[in-house]
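F.,

This is the one I mentioned.
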């Protein structure tokens, strides 16, 4: 670097020396110089440097040294990452599924005997229902035969095969029909039937619709698997003595009477204590006159009448009188003309 005077002034300047300037350094007196040990490389312009950086082509060896990286094209599909569950989850799922299959198999196996029992019970129930239906049909057919034969009879002899206690009631029937006429009618159907258990025997009350349009209520007794007979005495409401005659004569000997009964509260004379007696109003078929019947509370007769009354809603409000056959007697020396 040389301090060069220009125009006689003191104006130092800095410039780069070339090799050819080195030789002339010795001829410069009293001058300060700087020598470069190496040539200075002129910097390239910014634009040219960027251009070369962009057009740099790496050597093929550099690419191979980097190694190959496999890329799954579906891994980034839809900007989401497909993650494969760990193997342990598959094992756990398999264990759970296997456990469920084993549990279901064991449950079905254990329930098999119970299921078979239920099926057998169902089959038995259906078989019993079918047998009961057949039995009901046979019973109704037997009831119908007895009823048809009884209602269609024109004489006592035709009626007797269908009558309950035929040997005992035969003389009663002949005596009764001396003053009453037998009127044959045609059976059409049963409107309603109801079973009764009286004196450990099987009875049935049947509302019978006649072909003429009328109605009769009959009591039938089952005397065989498929055989029924009609209670003639209850049908005509047979009495050993006429109702008016019975009330007028007031016999003190016990007598069987077919009557209609309903609870009452006429406590009088020797039956005035209602804590000791139950009171019932008694009427006979086809008659308006009535009596008051009393039975001692807690007795077997009282229990039987009460049981019968509850089954027939006799103690309900607006109850209707119900038929019963009762053994009656007037107390000896009683001042009452209506109490039995």
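My design for it:
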């Amino acid at each position: 670097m040389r301090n060069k005077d220009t125009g006689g002034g003191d104006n130092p300047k800095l410039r780069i020396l070339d090799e050819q300037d080195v030789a002339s350094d010795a001829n410069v007196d009293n001058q300060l110089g700087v020598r470069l040990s190496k040539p200075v490389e002129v910097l390239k312009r910014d634009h040219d440097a960027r251009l070369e950086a962009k057009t740099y082509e790496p050597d093929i060896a550099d690419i191979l040294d980097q190694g190959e990286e496999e890329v799954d094209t579906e891994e980034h599909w839809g900007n989401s990452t497909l993650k494969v569950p760990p193997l342990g989850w598959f094992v756990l799922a398999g264990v759970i599924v296997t456990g469920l299959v084993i549990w279901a198999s064991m449950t079905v196996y254990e329930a098999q005997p119970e299921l078979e029992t239920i099926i057998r019970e169902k089959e038995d129930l259906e078989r019993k229902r079918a047998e009961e239906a057949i039995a009901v049909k046979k019973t109704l057919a037997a009831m119908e035969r007895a009823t048809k034969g009884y209602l269609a009879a024109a004489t006592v002899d035709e009626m007797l095969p269908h009558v309950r206690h035929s040997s005992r009631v035969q003389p009663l029937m002949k005596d009764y029909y001396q003053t009453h006429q037998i009127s044959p009618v045609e059976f059409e159907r049963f409107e309603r039937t109801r079973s009764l258990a009286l004196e450990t025997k099987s009875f049935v009350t049947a509302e019978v619709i006649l072909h003429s349009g009328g109605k009769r209520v009959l009591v039938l007794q089952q005397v065989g698997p498929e055989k029924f007979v009609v209670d003639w005495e209850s049908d005509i409401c047979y009495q050993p003595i006429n109702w008016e005659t019975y009330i007028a004569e007031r016999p003190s000997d016990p007598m069987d009477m077919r009557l209609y009964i309903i609870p009452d509260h006429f406590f009088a004379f020797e039956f005035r204590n209602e804590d000791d007696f139950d009171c019932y109003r008694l009427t006979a078929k086809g008659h308006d006159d009535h009596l008051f019947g009393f039975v001692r509370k807690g007795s077997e007769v009282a229990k039987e009448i009460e049981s019968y009354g509850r089954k027939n809603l006799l103690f309900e409000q607006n109850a209707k009188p119900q038929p019963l056959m009762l053994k009656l007697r007037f107390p000896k020396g009683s001042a009452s003309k209506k109490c039995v």
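The longest helix spans residues 87-152.

Talk soon.
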